[in-house]
């Protein structure tokens, strides 16, 4: 984007909606890291986990404490320069914002709502939930949800996601493999500050994190692939095109039982659009045979209604 395009983009509704989504997503991420990783020193395969290791090494071997928020800020600043230069600029700019606010957000939590207020003084290992596995589950669920939402708007929480994107783009490795390997390497560094039990828990958490991110991403991107056979197919076609503003595909088919020539409509719809279509068919008592299945990824013109209207 040139300067004029950037200024115009800053005045759009899309920009402000995505800014709010990114901010809320990073608030969730900051809470997940500070309240469920930092107290117990669980090391999950993220830059936040690496920051905890570096902070622990400074305290254990050099005798001075280093705030996790400071380490996160420094590492992300370096990675963000690489992201802007080596990856898609929209992704880079959005990730600059999300990654740079993570450290300060954790810093605010450290100052105003320190986790020590919520940890039992009698606990053998500092833990908000009183159990490492519960802390792990809470962290993975919160972080995975935030990651999935940010990925949907072409952003990320920064850190490890940036490294994975760079490796994927230039070395052509599968991005899931890149994230997993980098995450396990970070977990392995935890041997320097944690016992084997905590490291193993971190490795398991890294694996679960990948699975849950995939689940949330698929759920957020879920669409309905709808196939309709009806003698009133033209009426349904007009509703889909004019009222729902979706394109569709028409096939000439032959009934296997009746041998009659028929027309099948195939269309991809969001969940709300599918509900609107079914309501229209039921309210107008249209005779139709309908099947619907879930689709997790859609590319092309489907997501841009303005472009679809221009094409139509």
Give a description of the structure.
62% of the residues lie in helices and 9% in strands. The chain has 312 residues and is an alpha+beta fold. It has two domains: 218 residues, no CATH class; 89 residues, 2-Layer Sandwich (Alpha-Beta Plaits), CATH 3.30.70.120. The protein is elongated, with a radius of gyration of 25 Å. It starts with a helix and ends with a helix. The mean pLDDT is 81.
Q: What Rg is obtained from the alpha carbons, in whole angstroms?
A: 25 Å
> Number of helical segments?
12
Shape: elongated
Helix percentage: 55-70%
Number of beta-strand segments = 4
Mean pLDDT: 81
Number of domains: 2
Strand order of the largest sheet: 2-3-1-4
Task: Decide which structural class fits the backbone.
Answer: alpha+beta
In the predicted model, the low-confidence regions spanning at least 5 consecutive residues are none
Instruction: Please write the string of helix (H) and strand (E) elements.
Output: HHHHHHHHHEHEEHEH
What fraction of the residues are assigned to beta strands by DSSP? 5-15%
Main β-sheet description: 4 strands, antiparallel
Cα distance spanning the termini: 28 Å
Question: Quick gist of this model?
Answer:
The chain has twelve helices and four strands, in the order αααααααααβαββαβα.
